[in-house]
Amino acid sequence: MQILSYGEDAYTLWALKHQLSTILSKLEDSSSISECKVIYRPSFGRRGGENSAQFGEFDFIFLSKTHVYLGESKWDRSSEIKGDYLLLREEQERRHHIFTDYIKSWFKGEFASWDQFIEHIGNDIVGDSYKIRTAPAGSRLAENLNSLLTLVKDHFNHETPEIQNILLYLYNGSVLSKIPAKTNNKFQLIELDYNEGLIESSNYVDLA
Q1: How far apart are CA 128 and CA 131, in angstroms?
Q2: Which of 11, 16, 137, 150 has the smallest count of CB within 10 Å of its CB?
Q3: Are strands 124-126 and 131-133 parallel, antiparallel or unpaired?
Q4: pLDDT in tens, 62-73
């Protein structure tokens, strides 16, 4: 059976399933695929701001032997391509900073409950240019964060990993000759040609 799909989300999932070794090579990460875990589109709520604990949805997060990679993806039809630049919106950059703060705080101790974690980090997460509420105990957001942060800590056997922000740029190399060369600070741009995944001269990739 073939499961065919088209568009930015489809190409992202195809890349993570079928091109992860290429992505690791571009990141100069020597981990094998068997040492990696991929979390596709983890969501931490859609509403943001100082009065909210929610901070959005990553396109993907994947864990290698040594790194947590926090990922956004854009395809060659993205409106956020500006000449030589592929830029992320402010709220997209912001969620990377917030979740990085969560990871670093989570690895600083062993917490028996989310209440205990909040006691450790306080009721707010404050960065250089943002402040949001910590996910309240008993909320679905706290449950989601607890689950993922526990998975991350178990993956690295409680040893603090490196955290890296990446922007995956997906393009059709058969029709596109120029690709963006620069992106936001602190994001590594990874370029990937999805043309070889297209099925029978269509715009669809096989997600099976």
Answers
A1: 8
A2: 150
A3: antiparallel
A4: 999 999 999 999
